[in-house]
Amino acid sequence: MERLALTKIVLTFPIQAGKVEAWRRFCQELSGSRQRQYEASRQRLGITHERMALMENSFGATAVTTLEAPDVAQALGLLISSDHAFDIWYRERLHELHGIHLVGYERYSQPMPPQDPDVHFDWVADSAMVEGPSSTFMMKSRKDKEDER
Q1: pLDDT tens, 58-114?
Q2: Which residues lie below 8 Å from residue 9, measured CB to CB, with a gap of 6+?
Q3: Stated pTM of the model
Q4: What residue segments make up the domains of the chain, in order of their start?
Q5: Strand-pair partners of 52
Q6: Which residue, among 70, 76, 73, has the nearest Cα to 94 in the 3D structure?
Q7: At residue 20, what are phi and psi to the nearest 5 degrees?
Q8: Cα 25 from chain centre
Q9: Is residue 103 within 8 Å of residue 80, measured between CB atoms?
Q10: What's the whole-number mean pLDDT along residues 122-142?
């Protein structure tokens, strides 16, 4: 049986206490002083899109990383085993900031939503309804939106 390649993955990594600013600097380095190394790494690994977002709440901070590649598992496997200086540095920073090693990354992965999920509720802020600091929002159900068509 042929294995279907996973093309997208969402990884959620908790950020160690007191490391949020260091995580922000890490992201700045990727788009600044280490951008050429980063891009060369991602090209070599076959990663076509990577997005890192920060989520903070009363429980702490979490980095949410979305990766896209023709074969995400292969790309992550190559990153895990790479001996390129940048990839080693990247893995070391992940360990420092998150306390994790990429080996076993699957436990941090979240399923990607299907392309056409069975949506039961969909909320969008109508820009005309956003008012001042109190922000009044109008909620519409999917059925309401379909009725408007």
Answers
A1: 889 999 888 889 999 889 989 998 999 999 999 999 999 999 887 766 554 555 544
A2: 66, 67, 72, 76, 109, 110, 112
A3: 0.68
A4: 8-110
A5: 65
A6: 76
A7: -65, -45
A8: 17
A9: yes
A10: 40
Tens digits of residue pLDDT in 45-64: 999 988 899 999 888 999 98
pLDDT at res. 110: 52
* Residue position matching structure tokens 């080996």: 103
Q: 8-15 and 49-57: which strand pairing?
A: unpaired
Q: E strands of 49-143, at which residues? A: 49-57, 60-68, 109-110
Q: Which CATH architecture has domain 8-110?
A: 2-Layer Sandwich (3.30)
Nearest C-alpha neighbor of 16 from the set 93, 99, 108:
99
| SS3 at position 24 | helix
Task: Give, in degrees to the nearest 5, the angle at Cα 121 between 118 and 122.
Answer: 100
- How far lies 12's CA from each of 105, 108, 123, in Å? 10, 5, 24
Average pLDDT over residues 122-131: 44
